[in-house]
Amino acid sequence: MNYLLPIIASCLIPVVTALLGWFIHHLAAHTFFTSILPKRQQALAQQLGAFAGQQLSFSTIKSKLTDPEKIKNIIPLVEAHLDTFLREKLPKAMPVLSMFIGDSIVNQIKSHLVAELDTLFPVMISQYLDNVEKDLNIEKMVADKVAGISAEQLQQISQQMLGDGIAKFKLLGALTGFCCGLLALILLFIF
């Protein structure tokens, strides 16, 4: 019976070191998410803001918003509003005009206005976006949003994104601890 105790103790060394390795990695992950990440949140926010500012050029956004195909998608909506305006709102606002405006004139006015708006919209949207660009700082917006996230939310988001990675990190600690325990056991028997 006395000879079994050293064998059991020897078998426990790799198990204990595996548990110790898992615990150390668990503690490291916990420390990262509860202490290090919240303290570095402002720096992270600035770096993410800078990255977003570099990746999202306003000229790209502007070119997408002023794309003629996108504007053509707006025209049916504008045409419907013009139709409602010319047939219902304008006659109510100016009853005398309703005597002179029939379907053919409404259709002519609408077609001319739509054609004019087709050329006016890109210029108007481009000019509007030029004004917006002066006030819009994507880098600052992203940095402010990330900096405004609470520490708990940041921790939760990070853990959701890295969930499998964290589990693998802890298993790596257990595997490393187990291997270190086996190595210690082998060295113990050799020397």
Based on secondary structure, the structural category is mainly alpha
The low-pLDDT segments are: none
Shape: rod-shaped
Order of helical and strand elements: HHHHHHHH
Radius of gyration: 34 Å
Oligomer: single chain
Short structural summary:
The chain is built from eight helices and no strands.
Would you give an account of this structure?
The chain has eight helices and no strands. With 191 residues, the protein is mainly alpha-helical. The protein has one domain.
Which properties best describe this structure?
191 residues, mainly alpha, membrane, transmembrane helix
Topology:
Layout: H1 4-39, H2 41-55, H3 58-65, H4 68-93, H5 103-135, H6 138-147, H7 151-161, H8 163-190
